[in-house]
Amino acid sequence: MPSPPRRDVAREVSACASALSVQLATALAENVNVKSVHRKLSSFSRMLITITFAEDAWRMVSDYAVQVRTMDELVEHGTNLVPAPLTRAMPAVSAALQIYGVAAVVTERQPTRGAAVLLCWCVLHPFVYGQGSNILFLAETVTVTGGLLILLAHWRQGQQREVARASNGADHRTAELGDDTLTSVLHLAGRVCVSCYFVVYGLLKLQSTLSGTRTVLSLPVGLVHGCLMVVLCYMSLLLIVGSKSRRVALLLSAIMFATNLYWHPFWMRLGDGASSELAHSQRHLNIVLNGVGGEQAGQGGAAARAASAFDQRGKPLPLALRGLAALGQAAKPRLAMQISVFDHERYFFFQRLSTVGALLLLAVHGPGRVSVDSEASGTVSLSKLMHVVKGND
After folding, report:
1. ∠ at Cα 93 (88, 98), nearest 5°?
2. Quick one: which of 374, 52, 107 has its CA closest to 244?
3. DSSP-assigned states of every residue in 193-232
4. Do the Cβ atoms of 321 and 236 come closer than 8 Å?
5. What transmembrane ranges does the database entry give (predicted)?
């Protein structure tokens, strides 16, 4: 007796998935204004990529004395490029440059100039603050730079379209070819820079995994970790060549955002029980030493009086209060350490948000003409671009 025909389950599942995706795309096209969503995502990406510059400018303005002291310490150690006479002016210059760049990019009033200013600051910033040997810091700065390059390429494309609508002359088409070449180079350089952090991070982690001590328990963990880093490097390679770059950039931005919330929750650094207890002890000490309104006297004066065991009237403290005074004196450096950790975590949190913004820009605006995706759609390929560049030479 012949057996009944066997149904191809995999083919049916694939057909159902394709039909569902078509229905979903049709529903989105009918109910969602795609152009409006695209504009909003583009604006959101611009805000994200500039948020680290805005936060750093606010830090310069709100904590100017600390920034000057930091610059002086870097000069003493010889780890920055700023001459000693300019250390007091450097935070103000930094704040002014970043405020102008952020305002110009976000409002799109002078986007090209604003992006150029932020690009220049990206180049200078690691060396001004003595981070020239910090590989991961440099790589993340290069990634933010890549987002700015993609933004410049997008603006140039928009200008080219406007000019193309206004003129159809042969001379203009020749000029447009040169503009397309420069725009394509900006897109390519932007993709390479955006993937820089992930390539460097993946290679460093792979090196750490391969060079670490191997035990029976650590071998499976190291194997999984190494495989994840290989996948990360592969995804970075897809970004560089422009293959499936929108989806890869969107996936990496989601991963980067989630890990940023996990590794740099700066809002929790001053909210734990230990730091709250220290702050409460310091406030209590100030009130005891200075009176009910004595918090205005500041921690410095209170700690100095605590060290000498005298109150503000010069009278010796009771023995019962000297222990509290000693506690306040001991709490001060620990509070300073908590505040320092909070400050650093906040900076790295917003820097990672700018990296997320750079990836979103790539997902929104695409890889550009010089990419595998673009070749598949029949536009400019890398070989054609190199031919044009050699012809111009």
Report:
1. 140
2. 374
3. HHTHHHHHHHHHHHHHHHHSPP-TTHHHHHHHHHHHHHHH
4. no
5. 135-155, 185-204, 216-241, 248-267
Nearest to 368 by CA among 152, 119, 176, 163: 152
The C-alpha atoms of residue 140 and residue 143 are separated, in whole angstroms, by 5
Identity at 132, one-letter amino acid code: G
CA angle centred on 319, ends 313 and 324, rounded to 5°: 80
Q: Specify burial of residue 78 (Cβ count, 10 A radius: 0-12, 13-18, 19+).
A: exposed
Q: Are 353 and 258 in contact (CB under 8 A)?
A: no
Residue at token pair 């990672």: 352
Q: What angle do CA 299, 305, 306 make, to 5 degrees?
A: 85
pTM of the model: 0.72
Q: What's the chain's length in residues?
A: 393
pLDDT at 335 over 80: no
For residue 317, the 8-state DSSP code is P
| Location of structure tokens 């590989």 | 135
The owner of tokens 């190199």 is 386
pLDDT band at 183 (very low <50, low <70, confident <90, very high): confident
Q: Which two tokens stand for residue 162?
A: 């406007």
Question: Is residue 16 over pLDDT 90?
Answer: no
Are 67 and 369 in contact by the 8 Å Cβ rule? The answer is no
